[in-house]
Design goal:
It is built from 2 helices and no strands. By secondary structure, the protein is an all-alpha fold. The chain crosses the membrane at residues 69-87.
Amino acid sequence: MSENATRQNGQLARNDSLYGLSNMDTTLEGTPDDMTVVDAASLRRQIIKLNRRLQLLEEENKERAKREMIMYSITVAFWLLNSWLWFRR
């Protein structure tokens, strides 16, 4: 019986703490603070900045891939030409 009582008390204590947390959540959500608006606006600005940076990085990556392809092509052409000239001797 003491086990049941502690379980019941533990459940009650857990329910009370959950109820208290849910009350806190509703009070925080229910009040339209200026801070939440400011936070949302600053988060939007940060997301826009991150999006711009990501776009720039993607463009730089594309340009780098093009440069690498050109350099690899030139290198392969150079070695093929050198090989052909060496075999021709």
